[in-house]
């Protein structure tokens, strides 16, 4: 079983991408809805949550874990890989590799939570892969709450997206990394506000392809993963809005299971 966790429902974009790339493989998703958002939490708290979330997924049968949360990926990857002897995937590296390859001018924009942007992880990894690139980062703290509330088509959301993207437009970025797995849910709005000439990098698709490549190259792991087409969705707090938005993202009925950490 492939385990996936996020602070809330944003990681469902990763779950959807994994289900598309690895049809038939069993998926176990955990959304930490009782403690969302992670972006405003301290690194120490996020690390604690990430370790607890991974332990939960393993206790339910996961053989590998995708940290489908940019905030957790930016500060907790080292702690999780040190604690657990399993394949662990984060959403930052695959997105960076794609952006570094696609950008024509080297002007790359990154949007994410405050914790992700303040960590500097995207700039560090981009410059490792493409020295000389000009990285312009923008924290967008209001976008996760807006997505979690289901305000996907509200004019207020479009106005806030426009305000956040304005500094990146003035710097003429030609590639934009969606540095939070909630943001692909607003991809149409973001694309409209940043302009059609800017390539948008969706970390959910990038990490799903990375996971598929890993499984294809590791037959023992491939053989250990169950393939009954089952997808389970665990949450630390059940809300009506989560279910509604989850079904919109996944294009299917979703049965939520409440779990305690």
Automatic annotation (TrEMBL):
It is an enzyme of class 5 (isomerase). It catalyses: L-glutamate = D-glutamate. It comes from the Bacteria. One of its GO terms (biological process) is regulation of cell shape. One of its GO terms (molecular function) is glutamate racemase activity. Substrate binds at residues 6-7, 38-39, 70-71, 181-182. The keyword Cell wall biogenesis/degradation applies. The active site is at 69 (proton donor/acceptor), 180 (proton donor/acceptor). Provides the (R)-glutamate required for cell wall biosynthesis. Belongs to the aspartate/glutamate racemases family. This is Glutamate racemase. It comes from Desulfosudis oleivorans (strain DSM 6200 / JCM 39069 / Hxd3) (Desulfococcus oleovorans). The gene is murI.
């Amino acid at each position: 079983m492939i385990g996936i966790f996020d602070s809330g429902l944003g990681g469902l974009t990763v779950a959807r991408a994994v289900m598309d790339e690895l049809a038939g493989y069993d998926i176990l998703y955990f959304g930490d809805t009782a403690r969302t958002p992670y972006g405003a939490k301290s690194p120490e708290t996020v690390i604690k949550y990430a370790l607890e979330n991974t332990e939960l997924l393993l206790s339910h049968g996961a053989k590998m874990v995708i940290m489908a949360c940019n905030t957790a990926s930016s500060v907790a990857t080292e702690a999780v890989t040190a604690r657990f002897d399993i394949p662990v995937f984060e959403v930052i590296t695959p997105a960076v590799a794609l952006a570094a390859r696609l950008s024509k001018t080297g002007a790359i924009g990154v949007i994410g939570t405050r914790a992700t942007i303040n960590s500097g992880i995207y700039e560090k990894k981009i410059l490792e892969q493409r020295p000389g690139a000009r990285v312009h980062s923008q924290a967008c703290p209001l976008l996760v709450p807006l997505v979690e509330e289901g305000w996907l088509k509200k004019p207020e959301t479009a106005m806030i997206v426009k305000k956040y993207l304005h500094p990146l437009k003035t710097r003429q970025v030609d590639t934009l990394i969606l540095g939070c797995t909630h943001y692909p849910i607003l991809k149409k709005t973001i694309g409209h506000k940043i302009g059609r000439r800017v390539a948008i990098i969706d970390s959910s698709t990038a990490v799903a392809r990375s996971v598929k490549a890993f499984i294809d190259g590791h037959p023992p792991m491939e053989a250990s993963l169950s393939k009954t087409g089952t997808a389970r969705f665990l949450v630390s707090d059940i809300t009506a809005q989560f279910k509604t938005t989850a079904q919109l993202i996944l294009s299917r009925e979703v049965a939520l299971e409440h779990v305690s950490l």
